[in-house]
Amino acid sequence: MSHYVSFLAFALALALVPGPDMLLTMRTTVIGGRRRGLWTLLGISVANVVQGTLAGSGLGAIIAASQPVFEVIRWAGVAYLVYLGARAIRSALAKHDEAAAEPELTAGRRWAAVRQGFLCNITNPKVLAFNLAVLPQFVGHDAAWPQLMLYALTLTAIGTVVLLAVVLAAGAARRLLTSRRARRRIEGAAGVVFVGFALGLAAEH
Question: pLDDT (tens digit, 9 = 90+) per residue, 116-161?
């Protein structure tokens, strides 16, 4: 139990560190509204469950040990972060205001938000590598699969709660950011940070 409590504190500290998932959630909510942010959060959470399941089942270790497969995931992540950055920067430079009114969330828009969140997380190999490196430190290398999954899903749950707080805060900020200039600055800054994340991932070995 003491190990699990320590893990809870560690998972919370980790979830509070800004990363691509947090930036995407914040940007999507400010630009597209709270509901769109929640659908993006759903995609991120599903991807986190997949990553945790891979780590707990041992398949993640196989992927991480296979250099070609791991490199494909890494460069897919780089490409997707560059894509997100380019979209944000293009939106910042556009003449029309995408965030002037919250669009109706059709099934297609909801699916697009879920897909965007899922891809942002699942193409980040650092999430899988982290699960593989950290979970055994708390549960031991000989832990049973149910125990590994408990810790992996706890990590997902805490991350989801933190991102939910981000959605609520960004939704409140959206109501205050009524000027096109302010939203363009947010879009531009988000685009630059996404590209920065991509460069950092590309430099990883």
Answer: 999 999 999 888 888 887 777 777 667 677 888 888 889 899 999 9
Selection from 157, 151, 162 nearest residue 1 by Cα: 151
Q: Where are the domains of the chain?
A: 57-203
DSSP letters spanning 6-72: HHHHHHHHHHTS--HHHHHHHHHHHHH-HHHHHHHHHHHHHHHHHHHHHHHHSHHHHHHH-HHHHHH
Distances (CA, A) of 38 to 55, 174, 200: 26, 14, 27
Task: State the burial class of residue 86 (Cβ atoms within 10 Å of its Cβ: 0-12, 13-18, 19+).
Answer: middle
**48-85 burial, b if ≥16 CB within 10 A, otherwise e?**
bbbbbbbbbeeebeebbeeeeeeeebbeebbebbbebb
Can you tell me the distance from the alpha carbon of 24 to that of 27, in angstroms, rounded to the nearest whole number? 5
Please give the Cα distance from 15 to 171 (Å, whole number): 19
Distance CA 128, CA 57 (A): 12
Helix 2-15 and helix 145-176, axial crossing angle in degrees, nearest 10: 30
Query: Radius of gyration over alpha carbons of the chain, in Å?
Result: 18
Confidence of residue 31 (pLDDT cuts 50, 70, 90): confident
